[in-house]
Structure formats: C-alpha cells, structure tokens
Amino acid sequence: MSQEHPRKVKVDGAFVSLPFTHPHFSVFYRGVHGFVTTDFGVTVTFDWYSYARVILPTTYSGAVCGLCGNANGDPDDDFVTPAGHRASHETQLGDSWKVEDVPGCSAGCGAECPVCDAVNVQPYRGDRYCGVIARAGGPFRECHSVINPEPFLQDCAFDACHYKGHRDTVCQGISAYVTTCQSHGVAVETWRTAEFCALSCPPHSHYELCGSPCQPTCQTPSVPTSCPASPCSEGCFCNTGYVLSGSDCVPHSECGCEYLGRYYQKDTEFHPSCRERCRCGANGTVTCQEAFCGAHEECRVEDGMLGCHPTGYGRLVVSGDPHYVTFDGRSFNIPGSCTYILARVCEPARRLVNFTVLVEHEAGSHKDPVLMKRVVVSVHGYTITMERGRRWEVTVDLERYTLPLVTEDKNLRIGQEGNNIILHTAAGIRILYNTATFLLITVPDIYRGRLCGLGGDYDGDPSDDLRLPSGALAETTQEFVTSWKVPEKDRACSDGCDGGVCSRCDVTKEAMYSRNGSCGIIHDAEGPFQGCHPHVSPVEYFTHCVHDVCAASGDRAALCHSLQAYATACQAAGAMVRAWRTKEFCRKSGRILPLQVLFSTKAQKRHFVLEKKNKNPH
C-alpha cells in the first residue's frame, strides 16, 4: 500500500483487487483504511495517506525492533538503533532504520527545519483547529479514559502549526484519534460537519461515522450474520444496492470476474501469464487469447501490472536559460520567450495514444534571461496546466486542483516527489516539472520515430532532430525553433536575443565557473554526483551550468538552479546523489513544504502507532 496508489494494493509487486485472500493473510478495506491481517495475529493498517498502525499480539512483546520500538511496555527504551545503541534524536533514529535510498530522500533539514515552538503551537490546540480531540464534553469524551488524547492533540497541533492551519492537516490529525478510539471499540460522536472536515466520498457511496467492518463486495454480496458489531470505523461506504468491486461501488450487475482465484473488475484487461491476455466482460465472463508483445515491448511486471511494457524510454529535457536535450540526445538553446510545441504524435498508429506538450517561456531578468512560465499537456482527453511557482496544484480542463489527483477514469495520476510535480498517464508518458527551471518528459519506446516538435522524432538519430513541421530539415536552429512556435494573440514574444546577438561567456569567466567550487561539481569524479555519472551524462548539464552562471554574471541562484537540475535528472533515473547543499552553499530555504511532501521527506516529525492486543485464546 502506498500513497502513490490510493486504495490499491500490490502483492509481490502486482496489483490485486480487494478483498484478497492468501493461505496466510488477507487484505481488505474497512472505512478509509486498508487492512492486512495474518494467521499469526499481526495486523497492519494504512489509510493511503498519513496514518499507519501495526497491531501485535502480546506474544511479540520484547521480540520486535524498529521505529516503533520493542513493544515491551517500557517507552523509555524505544529509541534504539539496529546496533543496539540509544539514538540521541529522532532523525538519528529514523536514519538508522532506513532500508533503502529513495530518490529525493534526505537525512533531514537539521538546523534549517522550520520551527514551531510552544507559543506558535498553542493557537492550534484551540477549538478552531485540533482542540476537539481533548475537549471535555466533546464528541470523543467517552474515549478519553481509554486513549489519552494529549499525544494526539500535540501531534495534530504540531502539524497544523507547520502548515499554517491547513485544514487537511487538522482533519488528518483528528481522524487519527477517531481511528484509534474506534479500533478499541469506543463509540465516538459526530465531529465532522459541512464546514469542518467534511469527507468527500466516491460515486455511489456515502459517509458513515460508524460503518460496519463487513462491507458487501462482489465476492461476498451479503454481510455474514457472524459479522461483529464492533469495532466499526468511519469512512465511505457503498449506498444501498451497491457493492464493492475493487475500490469502486457498483450495482451487482456490474460486478467483475473471478479467474484462477483472483478477482478482476468488469471491462478490465489482464495478463494471467505472458502468453495470455484476457478481458473481464459482462456476467462474469472471461475471454482470453494468445498474447504477443509489439515492437519495442517485452512482457514483465511493471508498476504493479503483468503485461507488455516498453523495452526502454526516451527522455526530453528542458532546463535553465532554457537548454534543450532532445529524445535522441541533441542539444540546443532557445533564447526565445514564446510558446512552443515540445512534443506531439506526428505519425499516428493504432495502439498509440496521441498527446501534445507545450511550453511557454517568458522574458526574465538579467540573471534569468528566459524563464519557463507554464507547461501544458493534452492527453487522454484532458488538458493539464502546470505553472511556475505553483508546486502543489495544477489546472485540469480550466479547473484548479490541489495535489495529489487521480482522475475518475484512472488515466491520469498527478502527485509530488520532493519539489517536483509528477504527471503519470495510462499511456506510459511521464512528465516531471519542478515548477521553475527543469522539465523532464519521458515516453515509452513504442513512440520511436513517431514524434515531432522541439524534442525531435525519437528515432535514435540526433542528426535529423531539427525537422520542420513540413518534414524538411531546418538549415539553422533558429529556423527550427521558430517553426514550432504557437501563434499567440494576447501577448508579444521574442524569437531570440536582443538585436539577434546572444551573449557569450569569455574564456576567463568560463574557466572560473568550470571549477569544482562552481559548475565543476557536476562532473567531479569524487563529488556528490559521481554515482549518477553512469546513468545521466554530466556533459550537457555542466555545459548548460557554465552558460547560465556566466549569463547571470556569477549569480549563486543560477548555479544552484543548474545543480538542482542535474540532481533532479539523476534522481528521476534512480541514481544515487549525495548531499550537495550546505548552510553556506545553495542552502535550501526554510519555507514550509506543501502537505503532500510530508511523507516523502524527513524534514517533519513522523507519527507512528504500534498497538498490542491480547493473544487470541483460540
């Protein structure tokens, strides 16, 4: 279960529909939570957002370790590293139990962490925010004697302070206490209203404060008489006449199919094996045929799905002043401040999804001569706009949405990784934009030779990338760039540098900005990016860095943007990048990160819940 795929579960790397039963464990929904229960008494729950629990039988007391401690009843010995030493602070504890390097993951913000002291936190303990958790006579009063509300109030107010009272943060903090109370069989009273923490439910479902733990599903449409009355849970439950099909509420007539012991939703295609492709049709009917992968494809599990997936991917990069590296690796600069077609399908094919990506540049200051203003993507019938400086929201079909976002048809998934907006499409196209100076477009190999625009045709040959819309090759880069300009009526733009002459860096300055204390850090064989060199060539990024820093007269911000561009490209390729920012060099601002970044960085306090239960006498 991961925040990246709400209400979805992978088993051995592949998505499965819930409920899912295995000889030794079961996975199912209960309210807003996913549950994993085992035949040895351990239960794990997660709401796909911010609240996870591990519930152990008492037989595990003193036998476990990790961030949640040893479950021996003594909280004073919980801060222990794998080596058995007591951690001196939370960050050290977290780092000691880290299991793998995740792109964008860092050890924390240290002295640069935004600080909320007791004075700052106090207002968020009031009734406007988190105070309902501990309010005497409030909706949770029956739980106060069972579950101490103070730690939950502290956590809620701490997070609310860091996010300036962001309503979702407050609601998640309160919901954590509600979940814990209900899991202990304690009844709570209504606390959500239309104005405060209203829960929006998917189609054909509604909110219940105390919903049944046994929801009807396509596999079990009738709630068994043995279903326990408690613990109930709050969340979204299917309307009368509807049952759960995977994560959706559908009429029973729209239920899917069971095939080889697994459930599949109606109208979905799936591969039971690499040799067979099946489709779940009406009335639970499964039809299968022999499967063959097309050119540039191979059968494997990718992103939770067994099937035909691309053998590789092409990457188009726009960074800095701006500089372009086409899908085939050709580099050029664009001094213009207009809107251009970056990539689109010019050679359609039956299995290809058409798409178009536009980038709008605008004139900046002498330190940033040309800036990326917005990126517009048209795909799957949607138009998505990502704008400079808006790190946690996008516009879809002229409506603004806060991230993360998944469209109802599941064709688009838009979220965040660190400072980047990530757009995933069902067609396999992936777009990463840091809402400032870096854009990465990744397309699967099935688009080879079928694209056009400033990114080239992706045919493996960089020599023919400067192709005009007419199909002829441009004689100059300027002719090529101008040919892909989008006409605009409401603003004036420039196709090039003032007077047609672009500034150049003299030899002396070029040498100065090539040193390891500047752009040279990019290709330093012993530097923080050394682990990335085999994955992403540093050559173009180094050249672009020198160009931009020189154009900005050595401005430190230009250098930091260039280094961040290479770091982002490295992490997107799954390469390891060591810490390169310090308090004195490219220091990251202490500005609050958007809510969705909370669980992909270590800059904020984490909240873990470990519960114990009595051993089942049976």
Description:
One of its GO terms (cellular component) is membrane. Pfam families: C8, TIL, TILa, VWD. Helix content is 14%, strand content 27%. It has 8 helices and 34 strands. Helix 3 packs antiparallel against helix 4 (167-183). With 618 residues, it is of the alpha+beta class. The strands form 9 sheets. It has an 8-stranded antiparallel sheet with strand order 21-20-19-32-31-30-29-28, covered by helices on one side. It has a 7-stranded antiparallel sheet with strand order 27-26-25-24-23-22-33, with no helix packed on it. Strands 3-4-5-6-7-34 form a 6-stranded mixed sheet, with no helix packed on it. The protein folds into 5 domains: 1-102 and 608-618, no CATH class; 205-222 and 229-254, Laminin, CATH 2.10.25; 257-309, no CATH class; 312-500, no CATH class; 507-587, no CATH class. It is globular and about 80 Å long.
Report mean pLDDT, rounded to a whole number: 86
What's the story with the biggest beta sheet? 8 strands, antiparallel
Strand order of the largest sheet: 21-20-19-32-31-30-29-28
Percent strand: 25-35%
Number of domains: 5
Task: Give the overall form.
Answer: globular
Kindly state the number of beta strands. Answer: 34
The radius of gyration computed from the alpha-carbon positions, rounded to a whole number of angstroms, is 27 Å
Structural class: alpha+beta
Report the end-to-end length measured between terminal Cα atoms: 29 Å
Tally of DSSP helical segments = 8
Q: Give the low-confidence spans.
A: 590-618
Helix proportion: 10-25%
GO molecular function: extracellular matrix structural constituent
Main location: membrane
InterPro entries: Alpha-tectorin (IPR052749), Ser_inhib-like_sf (IPR036084), TIL_dom (IPR002919), TILa_dom (IPR025615), VWF/SSPO/ZAN-like_Cys-rich_dom (IPR014853), VWF_type-D (IPR001846)
Subcellular location: Membrane
